[in-house]
Design goal:
mainly beta; two-stranded antiparallel sheet; 1 helix; 12-stranded antiparallel β-sheet; about 55% strand; flat
Length: about 200
């Protein structure tokens, strides 16, 4: 089942009468069971004008965990009502669809799904998509990223390379780090390849 929450807008002026409605994934009806990890997740957000006209709708789709179990952060069984999960999964957004002013904008995310290891990737790269496709009225933009986990300290948030493609154009960036500290040592920006373009040394 789903639950809806209505919140007034914090804006001032004529638009202040607008309201935002949030729809969340619920526990279920006691008959049909579902996944524990889905409970409480945002499913839909809609902004409405004072007269009820829909101004903007955002809909979220959540990625199902891999059948292999690689995405689970714990083997512990959890249960809420009639819903039971074997293993704990940290949910990540598979896609977001926004409709505004007659236009639709879609962002689709793809995640790695590997078993936990010292050098990663694991836990879906800690909730970060490695491949993102954004589609709208102006066309499509694709972003690909790789991540660096080869640090002595417990540092898991470093991006190694990023390539953005729009049509026939491609722009790449890359970063190098000191493995002992995690500090950046080199950065290459906006070239045709990850080590092309402008270089900055730290």
């Amino acid at each position: 089942n789903q639950s809806m929450v209505t919140a007034p807008s914090s804006c001032s002026g004529p638009a202040s009468a607008a309201r935002t409605e949030f729809t969340f994934l619920g526990v279920g009806d006691g008959v049909t069971t579902g996944a524990v990890w889905k409970i409480g997740l945002l499913a839909r957000r809609e902004v409405k004008a004072a007269d009820g006209t829909s101004l903007e709708v955002e809909e979220l789709a959540w990625r199902e965990p891999a059948v292999s179990g690689n995405d689970k952060i714990s083997p512990v069984t959890e249960q809420v009502g009639p819903n039971t999960d074997t293993g704990i999964y940290a949910p990540v957004v598979a896609s977001t669809t926004i409709t505004r002013g007659g236009q639709t904008y879609v962002t689709a995310n793809t995640y790695h799904s590997h078993a936990s290891s010292a050098l990663g990737p694991h836990f879906n790269d800690y909730g970060r998509p490695h491949h993102v496709v954004e589609t709208g009225g102006a066309g499509t933009r694709t972003t690909d990223r790789t991540f660096d986990y080869a640090f002595t300290p417990y540092i898991k948030d470093r991006v190694a390379t990023q390539t953005v493609r729009v049509g026939s154009e491609s722009f790449a960036r890359s970063w190098s780090y000191d493995d002992a500290t995690g500090f950046a040592t080199d950065e290459y920006g906006w070239g045709a390849t990850p080590t092309g373009g402008i270089r900055v040394r730290y």
